[in-house]
Each structure stands twice: as C-alpha cells, then as structure tokens.
Amino acid sequence: MHKTDPLHDYAQALNLDYHTILVRRRWDRKAIGELHQLLRHLHPDLVHAHAIKASVYLLLTRRKNEHPCFPIISTHHGVHGLPDWKVRLYEFLYRRYVLKNFDRALAVSSTDYEFLLRSGLNSKQLRCHLNGIDGRRADPKHRSEEARKVQALWLPQELQGYRPFLFGVIARLSPEKDHDRMLRVLSCLNQLPCNRDWKCLIFGSGALEATLRQQAVHLGLEKRVLWMGYRKDVADELAGLDLLLSFSKAEGLPINLIEAGWAGTPVMGTRVGGVIDLIPDESYGHSIAPEEPAEVSALSLLRALSREGHTELEVQARRFQERVAREFSQKKWLQKLQGFYSELGVAFDGKASTAVPQNSLVRDAPSAMGAGVRSMVLLFFVILSQAGLVRAEIPQPPVLLLTAKDNGTESQSTFACSGPIHGYITLPEKAVGKHILEGIWTGPHGKVIQHSRNEVIFPASGRRTAEIWLQFTQEHLFRNPFSVQDPGDADRALYDGTWNVVLRWDDRLIAQSAFQIRCL
C-alpha cells in the first residue's frame, strides 16, 4: 500500500481490503503478471473490471490461468467525448473484440446500451446498469434555510448581504464537459435585460482552468463567475444552488445530477448519455439539445430567473427528487448488480455497510459483501503520480519542484513577494530530442500572468531537468511581485493569495502546482 495512493482513504472509508497494481505505461507486462499472481492468490468467485485497460488486462490474465474458473464482467463507461484518436481506437478495439469475451458487459446508460448492441454485442451478454447512490433527502420546507447556511460558506463576505440567483456547474475542467459553451451561454444571458441578479459557481479543477478563466474575462463575466475549485463535500451542499447546469458533450450517467435530485435542486442538462435516463421529459428538469445555440439556451436561463420560472423549477425539483429516490438509489443499484451476479451463479446479500462505488479501485471485496461469496475482485486501473500529473505519452512521470533557491533541491509552497521563484521539472528518462515546454502562471484573481512556450532539447548538457521561472516585462500591467521591498495594502491585495502554475509537454498537461505568495 502506498502512502501517496489517492484511493487509500476512500478504500478505508468503505472498509475494503485492496491491492494497488501500478500501471507504468500504456502496455505494462509487469502489471499483467502482478494481476495474474494476485488472482491466483485470491481464488475469486468473480472478477468485475471497469473500462478499457482493466478489462484488457483482466482478459489476458484469465487466459494465462491454467483453470480460468471464475466469470468476468466489464462495465463500459461510454465512448463519446473521448479526448484523442488513440484512446478512441483503443475503445473501438475494446468494444468490438474484448467485450465479447466477457461473461457479462454492463452499460451505464440506455444510450450506451443501444450503442453497444449496434456495435455487435448480443442482448444475452449485455445489461444496462444505471448508476445509483444515496444522499440526504432535503426537506422542501426547510430548503431555503439550508441554502442560506451553505451560501454563507461559499460566497465572499461582500456577497453575503443580498441573495443573487446561483447557477452551479460541477465537473472537471476538461473538453468533454464543454465549459466553453456554458460560458458563451452565460455571456448571452449577461447581455439580456433581467431584474434578478445572478452568479455562476464553477466547482472543479482540470487542465483547462487557466484557459477558461481567461475566456470568462474576455466575455466580461469576471463579476458573474466564481471559481470554487475542487470541493470534496460539494455533494452535501447542493441545496445552496438554485439551478445545477450540465453542458457536457458526453456523459455516462452523471452522479452530480443524482446528488442534485437528493438535495431538491433543479437541474438543466444537455440531452446526452445517461442524462436522458435521468430527465426523460420536462416535468423532471430542463434538457437541451447538444447543438442548441447559446442564445436559445440563454433564454431558458432567463426564464429561470423570472417569478414564473422559479415556480416551474420548484415543481420540477420536487418531481425529480421523487424520481431519484425511487429509481436511482443505492438499494436499486445494488439489487440490479446482485441480479447480474446471480445470473453467473454468484450470490451475495447486497448488504454492504456503506455505499458501493461505481468506479472501483483495484481491490478484493470484503466479507461484508455477502457470506455466499468467497472473494470478488473489482478492477479499476489508476495512474499514481506526483504534482497533479495527468498521464500523457511520457514514459515516466515528471516531477515539478518550486523553490526560492537556485539549486533546485529545497521544495517550497509559500513565497515572499521580495525574492525570486524557480521551478524545476525533472523530465522523463527516455525522452530525447526537441520538445516544447509550456508554462502557464495564474495569479490569485484568476488572471493568466504569464504564458511561456520554450523549446527544450533533452537531455541538455547531461542533465535531466529543465528550469522555468516567472518573469515580467516593463509593459506588463503587474509589477514584478518578487521585487516588492516594502509592500503596502495595495500590493497585498494584488499579490497575496494562491497562485497556480500549469506545465504542458508537447501540448499535453504533465504537471500543475499551487503555491502561496505572502507580502509580509
């Protein structure tokens, strides 16, 4: 078990024993061997894999087994919106040639189920398994009071004296979530006459954060949009929103919409994937076509801000809450999973002590899953790394170190505004030749302060590190914060706070880090 394993606390909370298998590259024979040895040791009654890599590795492992006696299941998490052609190719091979070798394949939405049928899977093998979770069901009578408490946690002090209408978006900042379109819709809304003030709270982090922040400023939304970052407990605070927005280009079956249902929060979503299962018609929420012009979507938001629209939202929220409690609970999800396992001769009582997650890590299931099962194994391969690495075509993870020293050995997370700052990125051992190293520095108010793009020849002079730094020109609106000798209140207002640096390697995100600047 790795102390840095991000799933460690998650597994402990579910009272699960688990084993981590580190996948070091796209094709890792060592990981396949480790999985083979693990399954020989566990003697599972059933193995359930999630998505492409875990499913491929599981199939290869079972074929290596001299007596492959356990059934295997794969959950397909959708194909639409995948980021690049290589991943889409792997997905095509997965659904055409891998899934047919599984005893059961599960789709997470009715749209995905129909897509897999058209791709050649037979109905005897394929099942639709809609996501389901439990949440605290908000009482409509006390929702206003709860909303005020949550908003006091969210909003800056200067916004707590009045009550703006709060739109909310909860999603990682990545292309398939289409925050770009959402911002354009908000820009159109901002140009329409409206008697109700409004804000949009964007929860989440990701590779596009700097770009999206810049776009929001360009569209004149800097006073309308609040960037909330990643918030662990946002699911318990959704009663603070007046309307949850989901403008994704692609979805499986979005958990955040189910969570909004439990909270009694109205929803508006793009009519894709599992959103159609959640919002089958306008009586449960407002759904919009993926190609709907931003100007039309803005009119829907404008109506939500009206008195009549507010009444409609309240009715929709009550009906959606009833639908979620009836059709998308944890109990419903477990009952269906229990049925799928029973079809393969594996029984369990379904009385897990806590929620069984839809995205499972590499682990063997505990005895609490049922006395009738000796061992079930759920597989979900993850890449462990440092400095917020998002895996790209890089053999080994780069490591980003920020420091005020010029020797690159003493890592820091807080800097004074009177000294220099250096960033050292340790590059992958197998990288050779010319590459482009990009650095995007964002200040405490969300403004991109510097965007550098430099050619790096690797290895350079026998070293395997490259240096980045934050530098300013005389024409820049900001003074160099690292040369302020006697900071005043204006300097502190401008520079104090959390800064971010994002690094891209040949146009792929490889590392990101947040750091503090304090003008003492």
Task: Briefly characterize the structure.
The protein is an alpha/beta fold and 520 residues long.
Structure description:
By secondary structure, this protein is α/β, with parallel strands linked by helices. It folds into three domains: 8-133 and 329-379, Rossmann fold (3-Layer(aba) Sandwich); 140-327, Glycogen Phosphorylase B (Rossmann fold); 399-518, Macroglobulin (MG2) domain (Immunoglobulin-like, Sandwich). 30% of the residues lie in helices and 21% in strands. It is built from 14 helices and 20 strands. α9 (255-263) links the parallel β8 (243-246) and β9 (267-270). α2 crosses α3 (51-64) and α7 crosses α11 (294-304). The protein is globular, with a radius of gyration of 25 Å.
**CATH superfamily heading of the largest domain:** Glycogen Phosphorylase B
Proportion of beta-strand residues: 15-25%
Structural class: alpha/beta
- Shape estimate: globular
Low-confidence parts, pLDDT < 50 over ≥5 residues? Answer: 352-374, 381-397, 472-483
Approximate helicity band:
25-40%
Number of folding domains? 3
The CATH architecture term of the largest domain is: 3-Layer(aba) Sandwich
Give the N-terminus to C-terminus distance in angstroms: 41 Å
CATH topology of the largest domain: Rossmann fold
Rg is: 25 Å
Number of helical runs?
A: 14
Main sheet strand line-up: 4-3-2-1-12-11
SSE blueprint and pairings:
Layout: H1 8-13, H2 29-42, E1 46-50, H3 51-64, E2 72-76, H4 85-98, E3 104-107, H5 110-118, E4 126-128, H6 143-154, E5 165-170, H7 179-190, E6 198-203, H8 209-218, E7 225-229, E8 243-246, H9 255-263, E9 267-270, H10 275-278, E10 286-288, H11 294-304, H12 307-327, H13 330-343, E11 363-364, E12 376-379, E13 399-403, E14 414-416, E15 422-426, E16 433-442, E17 448-458, E18 465-469, H14 489-495, E19 497-505, E20 508-518
Parallel strand pairs: 1-2, 1-12, 2-3, 3-4, 5-6, 5-8, 6-7, 8-9, 9-10, 14-20
Antiparallel strand pairs: 11-12, 13-15, 15-18, 16-17, 16-19, 19-20
Helix pairs in contact: 2-3, 3-4, 7-11, 9-12
